Amino acid sequence: MVSQAKFEGRAEFEGRAEFEGKTVVVTGAGGGLGTAIVALMAQRGARVVGCDQSSEALKSPHLASRHVFDLLDKASIAAAIAAILDRDGMPDILVNNAGWTRAETISALNPDKIEQELDLNLTGVMNFADPLVKAMAGRGSGSVVFISSVNAIAHFGNPAYAAAKAGINAYAKAIAVELGRSGLRSNVVCPGSIRTAAWDHRLAKDPEILGKLQRLYPLGRIVNASEVAEAVAFLASDRASGITGVVMPVDAGLTAGCLPFIDDILGA
């Protein structure tokens, strides 16, 4: 039975102590969202292990350890897992953040793009997570957070990426259901649009695109990386000890309903 003192300790939470003594592995650690997750976890006391596809992406001073591998390369993944376990030990928290997309509509798809986006965003993520997840369950504790997308909940373009992220949501629930009794929690954060470098190619085509986005979001803006990182930290933490198998949108209300329908059709 959990003591009342433990709950009182959570209520008296002080940011830096939350992840003290914890090892957190973050993939895609050098990206816009990854950088925010790394910084927040480190600020709250975690020993953060960063993973990305190049050493140049892993320059953050918040990283205690760095591993370079390619999610499209099984041998690279296997070598990275062995190196992480050897050098850093079994993680307490695994944040599967890495992902990428460019095929924005069905007309942009072809067999090569379909294969690449599914392999990178689903198959590669599962190949990396699976051995670590099983090891954490074997130990009897751990928390896994997957970064998915609102594209996995409703269609906002990027069909191959969306299909892969929908698969991630299903995989996360499978972990939650099958390994919960082994002390493992698994949850998903589904961001809406975030202003990171991933939007640069769209801004190059249309510098006004961020302004156009505002009318789609009930909060009148898109979310920022730090807001998504806060959701990741919460789900990873003991504060969410009773939460597993959850798919949480962090999207300024985008998936709650269609605001342009209210504005344009109902005239509210």
TrEMBL record:
Residues 22-202 form the Ketoreductase domain. SMART domains: PKS_KR. Keywords: Oxidoreductase. Pfam families: adh_short_C2. InterPro entries: KR_dom (IPR057326), NAD(P)-bd_dom_sf (IPR036291), Sc_DH/Rdtase_CS (IPR020904), SDR_fam (IPR002347). One of its GO terms (molecular function) is oxidoreductase activity, acting on the CH-OH group of donors, NAD or NADP as acceptor. SUPFAM superfamilies: NAD(P)-binding Rossmann-fold domains (SSF51735). CDD domains: SDR_c (cd05233). PANTHER family: 3-OXOACYL-[ACYL-CARRIER-PROTEIN] REDUCTASE (PTHR42760:SF133), SHORT-CHAIN DEHYDROGENASES/REDUCTASES FAMILY MEMBER (PTHR42760). Belongs to the short-chain dehydrogenases/reductases (SDR) family. This is NAD(P)-dependent dehydrogenase (Short-subunit alcohol dehydrogenase family). The lineage of its organism: Bacteria, Pseudomonadati, Pseudomonadota, Alphaproteobacteria, Hyphomicrobiales.
